[in-house]
Amino acid sequence: MRKKVIIPAVMAGVLALLCCAGGITAALLGGLNPQEEQPGLNLAACGSGSTIDLQKLPKLSEMTPEQMRNAALIVQEGQRLTVPPRGWVIAIGTALQESNLRNLANSNVPRSLNIPHEGVGRDHDSVGLFQQRPLPPDGAGGWGTVEELMTPATSAKKFYDKLRTIQGWELMRLTDAAQRVQVSAFPEAYQKWEPIAATIVDALTGGGARAIAVSKPDELRCAPPGQVTAGGWAAPVTHEVTSSFGPRSGGYHYGVDLGSPRNSVIRAASSGTVITAECNAHVGGDYWGCDRDGGVWVSGCGWYVEIRHAENIVTRYCHMVTRPSVRVGDLVTVGQPIGMIGSSGNSSGPHLHYEVHMDGDLSSRGAVDPVVFMAGRGAPLGNPG
User: Fold this and answer.
1) Tens digit of pLDDT for each residue in 294-348?
2) Could you give the C-alpha distances from 61 to 7, 68, 76, 148, 203, in angstroms and in order?
3) Which of 171, 187, 219 is the last residue of a domain?
4) Are residues 122 and 207 in the same domain?
5) What's the domain range around 314?
């Protein structure tokens, strides 16, 4: 049975405070010498209260101290190399897929090396957190020596060095960036780890996954509307919320309305797969169509898109002015244009109706308040002015 993680206070020289931290920065690294809290940006600036309740971070309690320590070493090395926080999330997501954040040896590692490790991996050719292949005897084609690759900081450095050679990696889907580095036989396998990787980074840094990807750690700041967070989320438009989630006009509003001008671009709130891109507009039992404005007498979303993200989260975007620019089955990247604002379907004027559904439940039962959900991912809706 795995032990639950208790995150201690910040240790000297470990994980300098990043963004959005109203409390402490923490990691499980040697010594456990508590230091005083360090001040930082209030987490409320990222839209999620003044502190992080570690007990409420999903799946964090499932991690062992060894896994969290390895994650902390990956983040620490990213900080030392001034890799933006998006890179920390990608690196941890990659290590979760490759080794489950365990420093693995392989059956070919000579016992004489006496290298500390946390198990033997299934790949006889690869070692360490990232399952990198050691240099063969002729010195060509590998990532480094066994000793280097089984030193977490060194293996993380080699991962980051390769990542930073990839043009545009900061805005790629996690799985695409990881695949460009790792060249795996299962290129889509990394994406499912993005939410837990972001959760781990948030826990270790006091909210680093909610920061925007800038070049220097001391320049980290919370993501304004429209900019992509390190955890891979962005507001679909940057305009004000004009109608909230909840009771409305004797019914219930299962999303929020964002008062965007006609023909404004709608962007994917996170990377994922398009599962719906169609017209839904009817009056009584008759098809109304979506290539004209709707009205309050029309039922349906008009031209709309649904995208399935990691952890079976689905986002919905309604009332587009024309047919969406994406099709069912398309893989989209956070921030990618998917359509334009309109007033098709059940609409009284141009706006985006935006919904978030959990557990793949597309009915009203699966809907959650998008304002709360997006704030929790550091990508608040609305223009704070």
Assistant:
1) 999 999 999 999 999 988 999 999 999 999 999 999 999 999 999 999 999 999 9
2) 10, 10, 21, 30, 11
3) 219
4) yes
5) 241-376
